[in-house]
Specification:
The structure is a single chain. By secondary structure, the protein is an alpha+beta fold. The chain folds into 3 domains: about 160 residues, Beta-Lactamase (2-Layer Sandwich); about 90 residues, Signal transduction histidine kinase, dimerisation/phosphotransfer (DHp) domain (Helix Hairpins); about 170 residues, Heat Shock Protein 90, CATH 3.30.565. The chain starts with a helix and ends in a 10-residue tail after the last helix. The longest helix is centred in the middle third of the chain and has 51 residues. The strands form 3 sheets. A 5-stranded antiparallel β-sheet has the order 2-1-5-4-3. It has a 5-stranded mixed β-sheet with strand order 7-9-10-12-11. A two-stranded antiparallel sheet has the order 6-8. It is built from 11 helices and 12 strands. Helix 1 runs antiparallel to helix 4.
Amino acid sequence: MFKGITKRWLINTFGVVLAIIILLVVCLSVTVHSLCYSTVENALTGRCQELNTVFPNYTAASTTDFIDSATAYASGFGYKDEMEIQVINSAGRVVQTSTGFTVGDASNMPDYLDAMSSSEGLGKYNGKLASGENAMAVTRVIKNEDGDVLGAVRYVSSLRNADFRTFIYTLIAAVVGLIIIAVVALSGNYFIRSIVKPVRAMSDTSKRIAQGDFSAKIDKMYDDEIGDLCDSINDMAAELDASEKLKNDFISRVSHELRTPLTAIKGWAETMQYGVPDRITLEKGMSVIVKESSRLTSLVEELLDFSKLQSGRLTMQMERMDILAEIDEAVYMLRERAISEGKHLLYDDPEEMPIIYGDHNRLKQVFLNVIDNALKYTPEGGMIGVQVYRDYRENTIKLVVADNGCGINPEDLPKVKDKFYKANQKINGSGIGLAVADEIIKMHKGSLDIESSPEVGTTVTITLPIYNEAAMLDSDDSITGEAQAELPPAPPKQG
């Protein structure tokens, strides 16, 4: 019953509160006990001071005179309800009391013995009387001018009222402490339940999510940190559900992408296996086999790159390189395809660009992917523009690939670089090429930005930093460069 958070609360919080309350009750009891006893002691000691006026001068007084005066004082004492006065003679016997009863020998009274041996002639006692009653006594020894003991006066007060007051106050403090403990226990129980119940619900829901039930949800009961955690788990389940759907769509898509070229290759291979076709048919078949094999190889390489990316094994062979050479080759490789599909691929080929630091093959892979996507999503007769220019303000090189294709919906645009995500399901593709390209550019300390409008087109801008040594060499013409950067880029020319 008491385990986990409840057990820790009982030990850390409730246990501390209980210990503090017990300590306070004990301290209050001791304080009240001390205060009550001090009040009785002060009252007895104060009465002793009256003896200075009762027996002002005993220069020529005798023991008999002392006994007569003390007896008269005891008989007329006005505080008989609070304390008792006992008159003791010089022989140590009680000869008179305010109650009218004589006690007898005073030698068994500790306070009398202390007073006889004290230089101040004062003795105190706190304990049980011969009757067994708890009481306090103060004795004052009376001496004449010669220092002879004439007798003593003893004040005795019962501690029954003081003990009763101490008990009452202790009982009240204990009851108040119990009430506080009960309130703490009830409020703590409610608070613990308000935490434990949602935590258990979150634990059960998390187990369901771990088992693949992404539809599991937690009812939000509180608008606090626990509620925020519930929202986070629900959002996580929704994201996992979306990721699971994307993964399943990806597997289905990749399966289709693999099956299509394999079917074409197998079909043409079987055609040529059962008979040698004419030359035109043979060339067409071989063309299809080569084309689909290249497509299959590209898809497999893309999957391998994605696998390396996920496991952190995607590495770069970085060196100084000319970015124009890789862009030119990428455009050249896709130009024939654009012509065959009836699309216009325009490329503004600058004369030179500064050196960058990167991986030749990986950057060419990115350029091919971006231009290939532009071709995919651009209809027949459409236009794809490729432009490279230097941004002198940022000291970077920018590659801009723009098309007037179908564009991307605003709700899909933030997700197009996510793994498995594919905005247009009608176009062939695995949905991971752009995620790999974005990661490659990030590993080059650059950025890949996408702007798009539905039915207007898409613009992809790749930004790569210039090699530091090149930037230092170009520092002399920085003024000219800044002026050029303010001019709009030249329109692309057809390649």
